[in-house]
Model the fold of this input.
Amino acid sequence: MIRFHFDESVRTAIAVGLRSHGIDVTTTVEADLIGASDDEQITYALGEARVIVTHDHDFLALAAGGIEHPGVCYCHQQKYSIGELLRALLLVNECCTQGELLSHVEFL
Done:
């Protein structure tokens, strides 16, 4: 099962939905990372072995720069409703492993 970390761009309702399916999720607020840099978010997620879920395209540039990261699930903010993004993340959890996502960007 994949463990996720939501940066502050992702709505908390999606974390609640994933948790209702037994999936381990942390949010930026819960991790006391409000206002933290993207690098700090990545450092936290690496240390906790959590795939970052974000709408922030800055993470794409960091990943493309070759830095080590725990995996990024990226989705443009207006692409999906809350329910659609929840279903997309449930599918990622079903079809992928934590190891497969290491240093990988999954475009949702």
Remarks:
- The two ends are 18 Å apart (CA to CA).
